[in-house]
Write a structure and sequence with these properties.
Largest sheet: 4 strands, mixed
Structural class: alpha/beta
Organism: Kribbella albertanoniae
InterPro entries: Glyas_Bleomycin-R_OHBP_Dase (IPR029068), Glyas_Fos-R_dOase_dom (IPR004360), VOC_core (IPR037523)
CATH architecture of the largest domain: Roll
CATH superfamily of the largest domain: 2,3-Dihydroxybiphenyl 1,2-Dioxygenase, domain 1
Pfam family, one: Glyoxalase
Helix content: 10-25%
Protein name: Glyoxalase
Length: about 140
């Protein structure tokens, strides 16, 4: 496979939610995400929606197939979304907002052994969201 135009590639996740309309409103309230596109389906759900937060974007849809959800082992399901923020204060603020919206706390805000200040919460459908100061691809100052 050719590596042409790799610099223009972007990465976007997608999620199937059992209650996609409710998830949109919850993600707006809990994390401050902005819904930039929303296409309802004919069953009261969402056929396609897009959310943004700074330079981060993802899509979601109504899960009509009943996809399996991952099982948590110890303190994680083994995957989730990581959102890089500018500073510790922003991480703390997002954590407080998420907890106020009834997110499940997995990690309270704290520094990791590699210098990332981060927190992790689960949304009402069990998806894990980590917010931290580490930016993958940029060396950490020790």
């Amino acid at each position: 496979m050719s590596q042409q135009n790799v610099s223009t590639a972007t990465f976007h996740a997608y999620f199937g939610y059992r209650d996609a309309p409710g998830a949109l409103r919850w993600l707006e309230r809990a994390f401050g995400f902005e819904t930039t596109m929303e296409f309802p389906d004919d069953q009261g759900g969402i056929s396609h929606a897009e959310m943004r937060y700074g330079g981060f974007a993802f899509t979601l849809f109504s899960d009509r197939a009943g996809y399996d959800r991952p099982v948590r082992k110890e303190d994680t399901v083994g995957h989730g979304m990581y959102v890089a923020l500018d500073d510790r204060e922003h991480v703390d603020a997002v954590y407080r907002s998420a907890i106020a919206a009834a997110a499940e706390s997995i990690w309270e805000p704290a520094a990791s052994e590699w210098g990332n200040y981060r927190c992790r919460v689960a949304d009402p459908e069990g998806y894990e969201w980590t917010f931290g100061t580490y930016r993958p691809g940029i060396p950490v100052e020790w």
